[in-house]
Amino acid sequence: MTYLRIVLLLIAVSQLALGLLTLLAPGYFIQAMGLNAVPAYGFYLIGMLAARFLAFGVVLVVLARRQQVDPLWLQAMGGIQLVDLGVGLYYTATGVLPLSVSAFPMFNAVLFSGLLLRAMRRQQLATV
């Protein structure tokens, strides 16, 4: 199994898990993360977020099975991870979130963006 395929599947599993949790058990997931319960209308936005997690998860599984991957998909997921990191840093630095809540998602954002960057570099070197 190639490095890129492993990275894509790892991130896909993460996205699919987040998608299923935010779609099927949003209240449980929010509380399990250590966050306060959200008003019922907040589940509307969380449901829309679930759709994006699930869509990207499925796309990454499909891409992992292909011989060639359009770098735009890797760049898009890398961008998502960097935004996730920035948001986590902001809300942690401003005291809205404790580090105990934000540390794991921010670690994943750094890990996934790093793995994607390395995969893009490897893919670029392979085509030169």
Characterise the protein shown here.
With 128 residues, the chain is an all-alpha fold. The chain has one domain (3-126). Helices cover 80% and strands 0% of the residues. The protein contains 5 helices and no strands. The chain has helices at residues 3-24, 26-32, 42-64, 71-93, 99-126. α1 runs antiparallel to α3 (42-64), α1 packs antiparallel against α5 (99-126) and α4 packs antiparallel against α5. The radius of gyration is 16 Å and the shape is globular. The chain starts with a helix and ends with a helix. The mean pLDDT is 94.
Task: Write a concise synopsis of the structure shown.
It contains 5 helices and no strands.
What attributes does this structure have?
single chain; mainly alpha; 5 helices
Main pleated-sheet profile: none
Helix and strand sequence: HHHHH
Distance between the ends? 21 Å
Structural class: mainly alpha
Number of domains: 1
Morphology call: globular
What is the strand tally?
0
Rg for CA atoms: 16 Å
Strand content: under 5%
Counted by DSSP, the helix tally is 5
Low-confidence stretches: none
User: In percent, how helical is the residue content?
Assistant: over 70%
Average pLDDT level: 94
Furnish the topology, listing elements before pairings.
Elements: H1 3-24, H2 26-32, H3 42-64, H4 71-93, H5 99-126
Helix pairs in contact: 1-2, 1-3, 1-5, 4-5
